């Protein structure tokens, strides 16, 4: 495992464009800190300070930060599809196989890299959440601070699933630009199918079916926190009106799609004449 990971990291770090994109991918989540300290003066009428509205208190900070940080995953998605595109354009995939790397090991090296960068990103988000939460929150009890830590696991799984999809698309079309275009087409296709189902059956059933789609299932791992924020600020504060939790079946669906994408990537490479 370490040998395959080291081999892949060596390729990425020798590529200037990949290094820049990886750096951007790890820097962008820190903008959540800027968001938490944002102070907007509305022409002297009132001052909006997000950090002082309880939005970054424990345990809600885990939910809010992971949701916003997951929106920056597209930059590393470019790195993932570029990994495959460069292999084909530079003929390194054929050379690696000639040098003794099996097709299974080739795919695993990409998957291990995905896991590695997803884990690093998750650790960074953990540090960011902890720093923001300790600064703004008055809560000091460990069991309350770490009460919703499952959002971090959902964030990690969301990255792994999304990048595995990018890996499969890269293997499918062999070109970075086309792979990213296919990603956009898949997004549109999911909503077209949802629209047809809602029209032919009903909206409630269409919603349930849509939750099994690849991109939608990854999005559903961390639900949008805006409604939760609104409820928490309501006078009666009824949390049960909105289900924002990370559920085991949502995790199972994304893990299932991840396994499918890695398997299909391997089958494509195995059956392809290089």
From TrEMBL:
**Family annotation (Pfam families):** ABC2_membrane_2
Annotated keywords: Membrane, Transmembrane, Transmembrane helix
Entry keyword Electron transport: no
Which residue ranges does UniProt annotate as crossing the membrane? Answer: 20-48, 60-84, 111-136, 151-170, 177-197, 248-269
State what protein this is by name.
ABC transporter permease
Q: Which organism is it from?
A: Psychroserpens algicola
State the organism's lineage.
Answer: Bacteria, Pseudomonadati, Bacteroidota, Flavobacteriia, Flavobacteriales
């Amino acid at each position: 495992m370490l040998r395959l990971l080291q081999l892949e990291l060596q390729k990425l770090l020798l590529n200037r464009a990949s290094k820049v994109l990886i750096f951007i991918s790890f820097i962008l989540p820190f903008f959540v800190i800027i968001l938490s300290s944002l102070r907007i003066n509305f022409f002297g009428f009132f001052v909006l300070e997000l950090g002082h509205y309880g939005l970054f208190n424990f345990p809600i900070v885990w939910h809010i930060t992971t949701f916003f940080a997951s929106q920056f995953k597209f930059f590393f998605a470019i790195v993932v599809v570029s990994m495959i595109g460069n292999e084909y354009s530079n003929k390194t995939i054929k050379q690696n196989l000639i040098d003794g790397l099996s097709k299974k090991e080739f795919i695993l090296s990409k998957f291990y890299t995905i896991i590695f960068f997803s884990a690093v990103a998750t650790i960074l988000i953990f540090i960011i959440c902890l720093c923001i939460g300790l600064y703004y929150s008055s809560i000091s009890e460990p069991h309350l601070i770490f009460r919703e830590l499952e959002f971090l696991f959902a964030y990690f799984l969301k990255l792994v699933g999304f990048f595995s999809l990018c890996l499969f698309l890269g293997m499918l079309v062999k070109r970075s630009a086309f792979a990213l275009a296919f990603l956009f087409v898949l997004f549109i296709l999911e909503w077209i199918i949802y629209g047809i189902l809602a029209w032919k059956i009903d909206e409630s059933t269409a919603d349930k079916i849509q939750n099994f789609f690849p991109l939608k299932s990854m999005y559903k791992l961390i639900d949008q926190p805006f409604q939760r924020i609104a409820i928490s600020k309501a006078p009666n504060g009824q949390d049960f009106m909105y289900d924002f939790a990370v559920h085991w079946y949502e995790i199972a669906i994304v893990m299932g799609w991840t396994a499918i994408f890695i398997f299909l990537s391997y089958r494509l490479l195995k059956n392809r004449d290089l």
